[in-house]
Each structure stands twice: as C-alpha cells, then as structure tokens.
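Shapes recur. One chain:

:::
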Amino acid sequence: VAGGDGGGGGGEAREGELIDQALVLWLPGPRSFTGEDTVELHTHGSPAVVSATLEALGRLSYHRLAEPGEFTRQAHANGRMDLTEVEALGDLINAQTDAQRRQALAAMGGGQRRSLEAWRGRMVRALAHTEALIDFGEDADDVTEAALSSAVGEMREIRREIEAELEDGGRGEAVRDGVRVAILGPPNAGKSSLLNLLARRDAAIVSPIEGTTRDVVTVSLQLGGMPVVLSDTAGLRSDSEDPIERLGMVRSADEAAKAHVQLWVFDASTPVPPVLDASSAAASPPPPAPAAAPMASPTSSCSARR
C-alpha cells in the first residue's frame, strides 16, 4: 500500500511512500458479503498503518468512509441477509461471552428464520382453505366445512406455539443483555463486600457505617459463561429517618423489580429482620420524629421529668 499525493507534512504519507505490505482481495458480486463488487485491504492493525491507509484513501475523490452498518444495509438490500440475520450479526459483533456468541451464531444460521417461515407457510395454507370455502363452498363438492375446521385448528396450534415461544422467561434477552442480579438485604449485611468479591475489585465502598451505599452500584461480569449484571443496592430497613437513605431504598426496590434474580444477604450473627420485601421496606413510612422541646433562655432554669 503506497501513499497518495500528500506533501508528507503533519505525519501524512508522501506520494509513493510505502505505508505497509498488505493483502488485497477482489470479491466480485453477487457472491460477496454485500452482493456488490468489493475490494478488501488486509493491513497490519497498528494505529499508524490504519491511519495512514485511511488518509491515502481519503484523498481519492470517489472514496469515502462507510457509515456504521452500511455494508450490512447493502447486504440486506441486495437479498444477502434477512432482518433476523442482520440482528444476529449485531449480536455477534457485540458478543462478550460464549453464550452470547453461540446464540448469535444460531440465529445467523437461519434457525429463527426457518421457524418464522414455517409458521407463515402454515398460515398461508390455512388462509387458502378458508378463502376457498368462502368463494367456492356452494359450488364445489370437495370444499367442505371440514376444510374450515382444519384451518381453525391449525391456526390455534400456531397460536399456542407462538405463545410458548414468547413465554420462555426471556431467556434470549437474558443471554443477550445479561442476567440481572440484585443484591438485597439490611444495612451492613455484607452486600458490598459480596459485590467486590464477585467483581474481583473494589467496585463498591465498604465501611462499618450503616447506610454507606446510597445508590445502585452496577458491575457487568461473566459467571459460568453467562453475562451477568450485578447490582449492589442500599440497605433496607423500615425505621430510617434519613430522607437520602430512604431515596436509596426506593431505588433498591426499583432494581429488585427489574432483576431476574434477587440475592438476599443477611448477617448470620444477628436475627433476620422482619422486612424481606424491597418494595414494602421502601414504601414504609418513616418513624415519627420526636417532639421538639422549647429551648431554655440562658437565664432560665428547667427540669425534665420522665
């Protein structure tokens, strides 16, 4: 790969200057990724080489940088990929765990497309039987009410299959976006220490002072090959008078509601508190504040009785 007609100032490659020893591939359409004629430059990946190569190509009037996803959009427009494969390709590019990679590859292999096409084919046949009965039922002996009953039964079966696919507990979304785990419990039970242990770093502040964690601390990690979004929350108790601490408990309740898994942590040396529900702890009213006594003047004396 050689530089263009630049003057060489500012770190640009001079005309005719060697930038890198690269591999050039010519991929004629329509069997390329996009379905169009394509040229690929396989250079070494150092920032200096990539930058100089892009600068040299940018000097050509008929070249420009591709927009994000433009090649995939061309592939879809040219019939090389359907929408399920486009979505799966995005998931594969962003995959960070083996589970995400396997799920994306399965979708790219056409598994989801084949299921959808099978449902569509059965729906079209059921529709054809229904339309035949409506149009020719009175004139044709071979078009009977049994065809309509068969079509209705087929549609009910398709509906059950689609509902079963949708009611999978969100496993596909959990693999793609991560299993949300909320660490809940009373103050100073060890929630932040558990988060730091699983994250293998000091992600949350740990101290013996109750109410140290006021906001949700989130860490993304892998557990058993699955993506996990782990959230440390504010401690839950029903007798807090601190408005900021109570706001933290409200956020804890929101995080608990969004979580796939609630992980409750308690101090084994103390009795388990009665409040075991994040929503009820956050919604419980604060205890009444003690009545304020009138302040005594410097010259007066007062006594208190219990």
Remarks:
- Residues 119 and 158 are 7 Å apart (CA to CA).
